[in-house]
Amino acid sequence: MCLFAKYLFFFNLMVAVFADHDLNNVSATTYGHTIEGKVSGFGESNPTLQSTRIMVNYGEYLGFLKVDGTFEISNLQPGSYLVEVTNPDLFYEPIRVDINSKGKIRARKVNYIQTSSVHQLPYPLKFKPKGPFKYFHIRETWKLTDFLFNPMVLMMILPLLLLLVLPKMINAADPETQREMQNMQMPKYDMPELSEMMTSLFTGGSKGNQPNKLKAVKKKQ
């Protein structure tokens, strides 16, 4: 009877050990790992604290903030997760979190251009706002520089400045430079005036041609 009791006690002990081991494995696979962090940028009385959400993998997992700004996302299996903070007023940069099979968690900065580069960040996660969201563009006001840099104004002002500055530069130059500038000027051609051309065309030109015609007729005779 005593021997049977010993065997029964030993059997129950082995069953308890294996059951505890199985429960640990089940809990590890069921509950998984937890991502922890804190979001800063607003006080406890800020109404946006309630509207702030923690999104993992674009909404696959969703978390909420506590009063002190901390959060926990549990039941995560080993893998890579993108953690984002959504807030209607403040902008936060997302963070990539990698969890290996041993449960080691590593946080790194998200780089969409150079995906191979790794910039490791401290863990637990710390989210700081980069700035407020701008939903509306501020109306532009009139400035004096807008008027001065207007193309039409520049076309009017620049020639006047050249007319004022170039003569002074030429006068201040050496005599040899002045001679070269004079030689570079275009030569002037003697062009008849328009009034003389018109009078010669309608009056003088016709009278001057009549004697030549008479001489030609006499020679033929």
Q: How would you characterize the largest beta sheet?
A: 6 strands, antiparallel
State the order of secondary-structure elements, H for helix, E for strand: HEEEEEEEEEEEHHHH
Corresponding CATH architecture of the largest domain: Sandwich
Question: What portion of the residues fall into strands of 2 or more residues?
Answer: 15-25%
Please give the count of helices.
5
**What structural class do you assign from the helix and strand content?**
alpha+beta
Q: Descriptors for this entry?
A:
5 helices, 221 residues, 6-stranded antiparallel sheet, alpha+beta, Carb-bd-like_fold, Immunoglobulin-like, 3-stranded mixed sheet, 3 domains, transmembrane, elongated, 22% strand
Set out the fold topology:
Blueprint: H1 2-31, E1 33-39, E2 53-56, E3 61-64, E4 70-76, E5 79-86, E6 90-91, E7 95-99, E8 105-109, E9 120-121, E10 125-127, E11 131-132, H2 144-148, H3 151-172, H4 175-184, H5 194-220
Parallel strand pairs: 1-10
Antiparallel strand pairs: 1-4, 2-3, 2-5, 5-7, 6-11, 7-8, 8-9
Transmembrane segments: 147-166
Signal peptide: 1-19
Family: Belongs to the EMC7 family.
